[in-house]
Write a structure and sequence with these properties.
Layout lengths: L1 H11 L10 E5 L4 E4 H5 L7 E3 H108 L6 H20 L18 H16 L2
Antiparallel strand pairs: 1-2, 1-3
The protein binds zinc ion (2 copies).
């Protein structure tokens, strides 16, 4: 592969321009390694040094420079590292605070919504109770009359021969009166329809709540 042969040539430190000649110098003008032919050619008038000379200088200066980097630069960079860590921690703390706030708000809004629905359900219950009270009263009256008529008709039917004569007449009179009253009871006669007022829910309150939730994020 081309890339691996290039890497190999680089590893051998040979010149690309001059038949793989050994690179023995460094041109400071062009900032590249050069071979003996390069030196005679276009780099002849440039500022160049032999790699041997450069290395002699590097071996003298580099250890000192590396020590300098370790003692005075790396501590600062490590400090910067910990400042990054601090930023990451701070962001996460901010998230946790926000999460706690939002969960608090969530609970508060759920409670408010529950209360709105509970209030509405109670209101409907009361309205229904008021409307059905009349039906219940009439039903109770009619039930009494039905029970009375049941007893009375059973008695007049079964005991007609043994009852005192006056009692028979009184009982019959009372039976007919009660029967007439009972027959006047008609469930259809009473128009007690439960009216649930417009807006089953307090929609404005719900909309206000949604607005408040939006605003929570605008305040930031
Ligand atoms: Zn060359
Ligand atoms: Zn050059």
């Amino acid at each position: 592969m081309a890339t691996s042969s290039e890497a190999f040539r680089f590893a051998l430190h040979t010149c690309e321009n001059h038949d793989q000649k050994e690179l023995i110098g460094y041109c400071k003008t062009c900032q590249e390694k050069i071979c003996s032919s390069c030196i005679k050619g276009k780099h002849a008038t440039h500022d160049w040094e032999t790699i041997t000379d450069i290395l002699r200088e590097k071996k003298r200066s580099l250890p000192k420079e590396c020590k300098e980097i370790r003692t005075s630069i790396l501590p600062g960079l490590r400090g910067e590292l910990s400042r990054f860590d601090t930023k990451i921690k701070e962001e996460n703390v901010r998230f946790e605070q926000t999460e706690a706030t939002l969960n608090g708000s969530r609970q508060s809004y759920i409670s408010k919504i529950n209360r709105l629905f509970d209030d509405k359900i109670n209101e409907c219950r009361q309205s229904t109770d008021a409307a059905t009270r009349i039906y219940k009263d009439k039903r109770d009256d009619l039930k009494q009359k039905v029970e009375f008529l049941d007893v009375m008709t059973t008695s007049l039917d079964a005991d007609i021969d043994t009852l005192p004569e006056h009692d028979i007449l009184d009982m019959e009179k009372e039976m007919r009166e009660e029967l007439e009253k009972a027959l006047s009871y008609r469930a259809d006669k009473y128009m007690c329809i439960t009216v649930f007022l417009p807006g089953l829910m307090d929609e404005q309150a719900l909309e206000n709540m949604i607005g408040e939730i939006h605003n929570m994020f605008m305040e930031e």
